[in-house]
């Protein structure tokens, strides 16, 4: 980015955002030899515009200034106005709602439909306030790209407005701040355990878990009754993730009514309580009863069945216990338990949701079952008398299956991405202004 030159002759142009009072204008010294793109970068750097090339310059009476000469010849008359992506800068809008609860009932219980409605009404970046907790949400790809990038403006700093505030743990991946040494270590050692080579290594294990579930699903089919898809997808996903990450058999498919393993129920309860508590204001978290009190009691991992499982398991835990980096540094043993809790919990909750939506699509979209079956037969999978050994190459070689999974995620992926915290006030694509320490969740 160009560095604004020292204003030797006190002739630096001043700039302000269209939509703000002209008295907020700031001086930025320019070099006449710069290109207009250089001016945009210099001005954007001082006025905190995340994507400065979206800036346009405007004289007081409105016409756009497209060259550096026009800018330098105009600023003596009045400060120069700035638009971002053609828009005046503004704070995100949202429903005012009711006293005390504010916009809570504008969103829940149908948060998917209501968020869609609010985006259509207020624009691509909206503000909601639920019982004192203010959150910003976006469905804009351009805004999301800026938000998800670690930069001078954005990070994952889990504060009281962040959806992970109730389970924040800086010793664990996914639920800790990114600008910490523990986060750096976790992202250095854990990805190899989940990379392509690792997936190839664990594919037989995952296939075994899937095959063991067939007896239960065959029995459900023989009863000719409907059954709760998500319940069994939670069982299947957690059975597989538990075997992969902890080397533990959760015994979810010994019978139709086999109970969930305590590790799974504990993690699910923890996540459920956190969602209930963080959806409300900070005051709610301090209540001495109900979900806030239970979240405090259950937010630690001491006493969970995972403690013993993690110590005695093989698989990913063994990898973390024994791996070293290129310098011979080991992964700190004190970080293993917290990271395995998060890897296991995040794994089965997201996977079970995706598998549930995949079954929904197979049932509801005409022709999908037939096309998928044809592809499996064409590749010698569905019509083979011998068990087929799956591999990443085999799965990736099925174009319809690949497209089916991706289209399911596109149509029915209801998840918002992790909350991103603003390091400073910033102007986002579309001209949206967010304050320092505010939290935004891209969709």
Describe this structure in words.
Pfam families: p450. GO terms for molecular function: heme binding; iron ion binding; monooxygenase activity; oxidoreductase activity, acting on paired donors, with incorporation or reduction of molecular oxygen. This is Cytochrome P450. Keywords: Membrane, Transmembrane, Transmembrane helix. The chain crosses the membrane at residues 336-363. The chain is α+β, with helices and mostly antiparallel strands. The chain has 3 domains: 14-84, Roll (Ubiquitin-like (UB roll)); 93-157 and 433-443, no CATH class; 189-364, Cytochrome P450 (Cytochrome p450). It is built from 17 helices and 12 strands. It has helices at 36-47, 68-74, 104-107, 111-122, 141-148, 181-189, 196-222, 229-246, 262-278, 282-285, 290-298, 305-312, 316-322, 336-364, 368-378, 392-396, 399-412, and strands at residues 14-17, 26-27, 55-58, 64-65, 80-84, 125-130, 133-138, 154-155, 420-422, 426-428, 432-434, 439-442. The relative contact order is 0.13.
Per-chain topology:
Elements: E1 14-17, E2 26-27, H1 36-47, E3 55-58, E4 64-65, H2 68-74, E5 80-84, H3 104-107, H4 111-122, E6 125-130, E7 133-138, H5 141-148, E8 154-155, H6 181-189, H7 196-222, H8 229-246, H9 262-278, H10 282-285, H11 290-298, H12 305-312, H13 316-322, H14 336-364, H15 368-378, H16 392-396, H17 399-412, E9 420-422, E10 426-428, E11 432-434, E12 439-442
Parallel strand pairs: 1-5, 7-12
Antiparallel strand pairs: 1-2, 3-4, 3-5, 6-7, 8-9, 9-12, 10-11
Structure summarized in a few sentences:
This protein is an alpha+beta fold. The protein has 17 helices and twelve strands.
């Amino acid at each position: 980015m160009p560095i604004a030159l020292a204003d030797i002759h006190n002739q630096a142009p001043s700039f302000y955002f269209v939509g703000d009072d002209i008295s907020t204008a700031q001086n930025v010294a320019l070099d006449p030899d710069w290109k207009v793109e250089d001016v945009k970068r210099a001005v954007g750097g001082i006025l905190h515009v995340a994507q400065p090339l979206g800036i346009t310059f405007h004289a007081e009476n409105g016409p756009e200034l497209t060259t550096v000469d026009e800018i330098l010849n105009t600023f003596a008359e009045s400060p120069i106005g700035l638009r971002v992506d053609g828009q005046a800068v503004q704070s995100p809008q949202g429903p005012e709602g009711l006293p005390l609860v504010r916009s809570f009932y504008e969103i829940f219980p149908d948060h998917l439909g209501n968020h869609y409605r609010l985006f259509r009404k207020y624009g691509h970046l909206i503000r909601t306030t639920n019982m004192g907790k203010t959150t910003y949400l976006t469905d804009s790809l351009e805004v999301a790209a800026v938000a998800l990038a670690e930069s001078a403006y954005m990070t994952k700093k889990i504060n009281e407005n962040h959806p992970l505030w109730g389970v924040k743990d800086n010793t664990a991946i996914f639920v800790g701040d990114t600008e910490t040494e523990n986060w750096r270590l976790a992202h250095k050692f854990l990805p190899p355990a989940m990379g392509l080579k690792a997936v190839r290594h664990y594919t037989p294990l995952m296939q075994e878990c899937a095959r063991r579930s067939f007896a239960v699903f065959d029995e459900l089919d023989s009863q000719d009754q409907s059954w709760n898809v998500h319940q069994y997808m939670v069982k299947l996903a957690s059975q597989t993730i538990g075997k992969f990450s902890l080397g533990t058999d959760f015994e979810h498919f010994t019978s139709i009514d086999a109970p969930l393993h305590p590790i799974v129920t504990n993690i699910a309860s923890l996540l459920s309580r956190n969602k209930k508590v963080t959806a409300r204001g900070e005051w709610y978290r301090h209540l001495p009863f109900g979900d806030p009190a239970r979240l405090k009691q259950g937010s630690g991992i001491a006493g969970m069945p995972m403690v013993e499982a993690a110590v005695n398991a093989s698989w990913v835990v063994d990898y973390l216990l024994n791996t070293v980096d290129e310098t011979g540094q080991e992964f700190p043993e004190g970080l293993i338990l917290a990271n395995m809790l998060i890897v296991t919990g995040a794994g089965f909750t997201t996977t079970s949701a995706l598998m549930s939506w995949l079954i929904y699509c197979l049932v509801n979209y005409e022709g999908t079952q037939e096309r998928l079956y044809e592809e499996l037969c064409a590749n010698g999978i569905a019509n083979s008398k011998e068990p087929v050994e799956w591999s990443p190459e085999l799965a990736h070689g099925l174009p319809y299956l690949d497209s089916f999974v991706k289209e399911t995620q596109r149509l029915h992926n209801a998840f918002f991405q992790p909350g991103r915290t603003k390091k400073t006030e910033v102007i986002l694509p579309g001209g949206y202004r967010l304050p320092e320490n505010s939290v935004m969740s891209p969709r």
